[in-house]
Amino acid sequence: MSEKEMIVLIAKKNEKAFEKLYNRYHKLLFTIIFQVVNNYDDSADITQDVFMEIWNKINNYNGGNFKYWCISIARNKAIDFVRRKIKKQNDFYKYCENLINRQMIFIEQKKVNDSKLLIDIRKMISCEEFQIIELKLFNKLKFKEIAYIKDMKVNSVTNIYYQALKKIKTKIGGNYEKYYEDN
Question: What is the structure's pLDDT at 85?
């Protein structure tokens, strides 16, 4: 079956033609997606989404190189997935940072024994992580300034900072009663 015949039949929702398309392009599209996403399971899911989009939007194909049209859909879906994943990760990090900032305000208002809390936090994370958190939260420095002080790349400082916040959040959680001065 020629590519043109296959396209016409898919536009008429012929499942046999769609199966041929799948067999012809599955490995290629999966490989392209995997190169962007770098995760087997996510790539498999996105590949399925790509074929569903081809099935649903075949009438949007305006001629030209069909293979390239399919590749464009695959690449765009993979890039969108990575962007959403990065945004979700950044949203999580902002949540953690806001949580720590809110907890610092809460600690000040509730007369919490901050020295005990800081000692415990210091035990949970490395010296470098603690220094970066201290510079960011207590000294209110920007990542660029911290990177300059520590002679590191901004991206490295940012990653260390967010990994440390994640460790603290996981280990302390929401239970701060043991840090109250009354106890």
Answer: 81
